């Protein structure tokens, strides 16, 4: 999974770096507000990709006394930082630049530059999005719908790239449409409107990304399907009389902490109870590999850790 995430992020960084340079060059020659906003957007996306790589690197640190469950949530923290940057530097600047353009409208020139850069950018961003989607589908084959898959996924680094690339393509299409309308109508205000629209898209994307990252940072539980699997394994053991609701928390896309209380049959002695718990832990981790740590506590006999 980490390899897929890295590949998607590297692809996005390379694409956004090339696109940002070309956009700034085009903005310099054409004076387009929307193109300048798009250049800032691509530059921010490049920096965001580096932050996601930093998060992935930090998340691989081994557990220690201060962080006994490891550093997996570093990915979620840096994804949240990325959402703030998209909101402030991407969306905020684009809206500001658009408003300034409406206050002091200037006709856009050299449309050939804009069309060439925007067309190339769409191709680059489309390829980066393809890589990210391919990595996401490979890591999450059970998700048939991308939108619902992103909402349910805990792989923050990969879905952040997908969301950013999708927003980038939407922004490029808006800029391209604004450029075309400015050319055929000669209306200088359309460029500013396009810039504000791009900013609005980035703000919406940033809020969505922040929302998803926030849930993960606060300790989002496993999916309902995983919870049902756990309950099925626990309740299916003939030595278990009852069990509490499984409590789970994601510390990494494929690392889940599980704690659960069970009541065993009274006839079991301590040794037998320990054996039952050990078997349950082994079976849960075998059937659900994403559960890296499982704590099963009995109300009558013992407390075991996997």
Query: From the 3D coordinates, which CATH architecture of the largest domain would you assign?
Result: Up-down Bundle
Mean pLDDT comes to 83
Give the distance, in angstroms, between the N- and C-terminal Cα atoms: 23 Å
Radius of gyration from the alpha-carbon trace, in angstroms? 25 Å
Strand content: 5-15%
- The CATH class name of the largest domain reads Mainly Alpha
**Structural shape:** elongated
**What's the total count of β strands?**
5
Give the name of the CATH superfamily of the largest domain: Cation efflux protein transmembrane domain
Characterize the main sheet.
5 strands, mixed
Number of helices: 9
Oligomer: single chain
Q: Write the element-wise H/E pattern from the N-terminal end onward.
A: HHHHHHHHEEEHEE
Summarize the amount of helix as a percent range. 55-70%
Per-chain topology:
Layout lengths: L1 H29 L2 H27 L14 H30 L7 H29 L6 H7 L3 H30 L3 H29 L6 H12 L4 E4 L3 E6 L2 E10 L5 H18 L3 E8 L4 E3 L1
Parallel strand pairs: 3-4
Antiparallel strand pairs: 1-3, 2-3, 4-5
Helix pairs in contact: 1-2, 1-4, 1-6, 2-3, 2-6, 2-7, 3-7, 4-6, 6-7, 8-9
Question: Which descriptors would you attach to this protein?
Answer:
disordered C terminus; Alpha-Beta Plaits; 5 strands; 9 helices; Alpha-lytic protease prodomain-like; five-stranded mixed β-sheet; single chain; 2 domains; 10% strand; 306 residues; alpha+beta
Could you please describe the fold and organization of this structure?
This protein has 2 domains: 2-217, Alpha-lytic protease prodomain-like (Up-down Bundle), CATH 1.20.1510.10; 224-305, Cation efflux protein, cytoplasmic domain (Alpha-Beta Plaits). Helix content is 69%, strand content 10%. The protein has helices spanning 2-30, 33-59, 74-103, 111-139, 146-152, 156-185, 189-217, 224-235, 270-287; strands spanning 240-243, 247-252, 255-264, 291-298, 303-305. Helix 2 (33-59) packs antiparallel against helix 6 and helix 6 (156-185) packs antiparallel against helix 7 (189-217). The longest helix has 30 residues, at 74-103. Residues 301-306 have low confidence and may be disordered.
């Amino acid at each position: 999974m980490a390899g897929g995430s890295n590949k998607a992020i590297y692809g996005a960084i390379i694409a956004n770096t090339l696109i940002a340079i070309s956009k700034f060059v085009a903005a310099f020659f054409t004076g387009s507000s929307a193109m300048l906003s798009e250049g800032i957007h691509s530059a921010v996306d490049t920096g965001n990709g580096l932050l996601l790589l930093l998060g992935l690197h930090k998340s691989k640190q081994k557990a220690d006394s201060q962080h006994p469950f490891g550093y997996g949530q570093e990915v979620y923290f840096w994804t949240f930082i990325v959402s703030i940057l998209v909101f402030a530097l991407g969306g905020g600047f684009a809206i500001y630049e658009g408003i300034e353009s409406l206050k002091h409208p200037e006709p856009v020139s050299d449309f050939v530059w804009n069309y060439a850069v925007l067309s190339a950018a769409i191709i680059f961003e489309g390829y980066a999005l393809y890589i990210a989607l391919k990595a996401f589908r490979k890591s999450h084959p059970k998700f048939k719908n991308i939108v619902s898959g992103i909402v349910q996924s805990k792989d923050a680094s990969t879905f952040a790239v997908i969301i950013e690339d999708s927003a980038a393509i939407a922004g490029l299409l808006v800029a391209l449409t604004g450029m075309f309308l400015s050319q055929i109508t000669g209306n200088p205000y359309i460029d500013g409107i396009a810039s504000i629209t791009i900013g609005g898209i980035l703000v919406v994307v940033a809020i969505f990304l922040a929302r998803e990252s926030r849930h993960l940072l606060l300790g989002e539980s496993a999916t309902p399907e995983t919870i049902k699997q756990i309950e099925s394994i626990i309740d299916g053991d003939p030595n278990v009389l009852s069990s509490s609701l499984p409590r789970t928390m994601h510390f990494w896309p494929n690392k889940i902490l599980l704690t659960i209380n069970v009541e065993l049959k009274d006839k079991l002695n301590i040794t037998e109870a320990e054996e039952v718990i050990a078997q349950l832990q082994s079976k849960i981790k075998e059937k659900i590999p994403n559960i890296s740590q499982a704590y099963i506590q009995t109300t009558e006999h013992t407390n075991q850790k996997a």
